[in-house]
Amino acid sequence: MSDHLQRLYERFRYRGRKFDFEAVGLRLPNGAEGELETIRHPGGAMAVPVLADGRLVLVRQYRFPLDRWLLELPAGTLEPGESAEATIRRELAEETGHRADGWAELGQFPLAPGYSDELIHAFLAWDLQPLPDPPAQDADEDIETVLMTPAEVEEAFARGEVDAKTMAGLALARGRGRL
Amino acid sequence: MSDHLQRLYERFRYRGRKFDFEAVGLRLPNGAEGELETIRHPGGAMAVPVLADGRLVLVRQYRFPLDRWLLELPAGTLEPGESAEATIRRELAEETGHRADGWAELGQFPLAPGYSDELIHAFLAWDLQPLPDPPAQDADEDIETVLMTPAEVEEAFARGEVDAKTMAGLALARGRGRL
Prior knowledge:
Largest sheet of chain A: 4 strands, mixed
Shape of chain A: elongated
Radius of gyration of chain A: 18 Å
Largest interface: A-B, 63 and 63 residues
Number of strands of chain A: 10
Distance between the termini of chain A: 46 Å
Strand order of the largest sheet of chain A: 7-4-9-8
Order of helices and strands of chain A: EEEEEEEHEEEHH
Number of helices of chain A: 3
Oligomer: homodimer
Helix content of chain A: 10-25%
């Protein structure tokens, strides 16, 4: 018996634009065998952008799996060969039209470990400046910037309008005494 | 142009044990068209089980997508026709060997809205009692119960050992003044 996973066979793999989906036969560390499905993801990067007055820069974003708009901290998927820090600088510019002069790593966490290997790398961002010539958004994104206090984010979360990673990012920033 | 999503065609569907995965052609509310992939999930239910001394009941659980153990609040996937409240009572028993006599709904939130439609229904649970004859765990689960203070959970989260939904659940319980 091994302490780690053994891959027995691959039944299926779907190569998506940003991540893969696979169904594989596995032997788990406890000896159980089964066919399990998971998203194989290159990782995500998220910013907790804090303005001088303590408000946060969030995005109001259309999410097609739910067919509705959510409030979220700016985030995106790592591109091949891209560092998490490069990803989040790019996404902050594309999604909010801002750059930050202050950056600090907050840590990384699993988003949906029941069916995805995605880890989200979280960064605190401050000294925010509007870009004179912001980059274009992706064609399939529909995003506007929203400024909210942490208390307002928590109220919106209790109404189901905010996603889990955003609350995880607030917890990390608060743990560092930065909210 | 519609305010909502239009489904143009289905390229692919995988029927998994607990959820489906699909690749579909979509027209988004902003008019953009594309082929997008998502997990179609029946929903999850999570407990924030609070002991009389303020500690939380978590589970240390092997997660095959990451091939490592994580600390998480007890949770599980809704079965066909099952209510979220029935799911979480069942999962609390299976995963921790406890039942709760006090239950309150905390709300629901999207877990990974970039590629999943899963909503997690969160419940506060108190008046916890060990079951005299706890039910068996699923064969592919490998779970032990861990008691931690909220501060200890936050420290473990900063080390990457806790998932996003757990931090979201703590935020909901704290917002109700229950942590």
